[in-house]
Specification:
Layout (H helix, E strand, L loop, with lengths): L13 H13 L2 H8 L3 H15 L4 E2 L6 E2 L1 H24 L4 E6 L1 H8 L3 H7 L4 E6 L12 E6 L9 E12 L13 E4 L5 H9 L8 E4 L2 H9 L4 E5 H9 L10 E11 L6 H15 L4
Parallel strand pairs: 3-4, 3-5, 7-8, 7-9
Antiparallel strand pairs: 1-2, 5-10, 6-9, 6-10
Helix pairs in contact: 1-2, 1-3, 1-4, 2-3, 5-9
């Protein structure tokens, strides 16, 4: 019935184009697969089929360090703009009172979720849908807003609005203060250089204990509260623990050049999105760097 809507041969498979765009944008077949909810091998097959259909190589280099070719970069730029435009069009005709917010897990657990009751009390007419933001991603297709920490070299991202400057500090449970010099150093795979960055910014020496590497920042927070070691963490995700006396920051916090930011999706913001953004800014005003 629909076979003649697109002249045969004029466009390659839409599935292949989506797979390539996601892989090129995220820089990884694994991350593209997670975004598209398919397997790694499915993405790879689609990209290879697309290359065969187009008659050009879109990626080059070793298997685990693929980079875009010149034709790949040209195609990616056009596809990303087009898919973003499609996503924006869909957003404009969807439910006006639903806002989709993609957020890093630790920021969701330790900062956003404890404040959501306030949002629901103020704006019961808006349904806020949360999803997990990929570790290195600044946006998530289908999400209206993204909430995450952004490093200093990414602050020129279009649509980015700073909520609060990021401050990092050494934190630990109060009983650990007496043995702080030899305390274990808690860290996470997602912020492996946290101790080095803190030593540089604060001009201090890290504890001499062994390293304990955990999966996520919110797990590091809980481990620090449990007295398993000291950690270097952003102020925003530990301020509630400090206020409750479960953690202390003996040397205070120092700016690291980054920010906690909200990043808008493509297209004009809806009324509900503007309300969510204002609420995030209001909450952030009560968060010290």
């Amino acid at each position: 019935m629909f076979e003649n809507l697109t002249p045969r041969g004029s466009l390659p498979s839409l599935t292949g184009l989506r797979a390539f765009e996601a892989m090129g944008r995220t820089g990884s077949a694994t991350r593209a697969a997670a975004e598209l909810h398919v397997t790694h091998s499915a993405v790879s097959r689609q990209v290879k089929a697309l290359e065969a259909a187009l008659g050009v190589r879109l990626f080059e280099g070793p298997k685990h360090r693929l980079t875009l070719t010149e034709p790949g970069r040209t195609l990616l730029a056009g596809l990303t703009e087009s898919f973003d435009g499609l996503a924006a069009a869909v957003r404009r005709v969807r439910e006006r009172d639903v806002v989709r917010l993609a957020v890093h897990p630790s920021l969701a657990v330790k900062w956003l979720v404890p404040r959501l009751a306030d949002f629901e009390a103020r704006h019961p007419e808006i349904s806020l849908h949360l999803s997990e933001l990929e570790l290195h991603a600044l946006r998530q297709r289908g999400a209206d807003l993204a909430l995450r920490y952004v490093d200093a070299d990414q602050l020129d991202e279009p649509g980015l609005e700073t909520l609060v400057e990021n401050g990092i500090g050494l934190v630990c449970a109060p009983p650990l203060l007496e043995a702080l010099e030899t305390a274990p150093r808690l860290t996470t795979r997602t912020r492996e250089h946290a101790w080095r960055d803190w030593e540089t910014a604060a001009g201090r020496i890290a504890p001499r204990g062994r390293n304990r590497t955990l999966a996520h920042l919110h797990i590091v927070v809980d481990a620090a509260v449990a007295g398993l070691g000291a950690a270097v963490l952003p102020r925003a995700i530990v301020e509630d623990e400090i206020a409750a006396g479960r953690l202390v920051a003996p040397f205070g916090f120092v700016a690291d050049g980054g920010v906690m930011a909200a990043i808008r999706g493509p297209g004009a913001a809806t009324r509900s999105e503007r309300i969510v953004m204002r609420w995030l800014k209001d909450q952030a005003r009560h968060t010290r760097a």
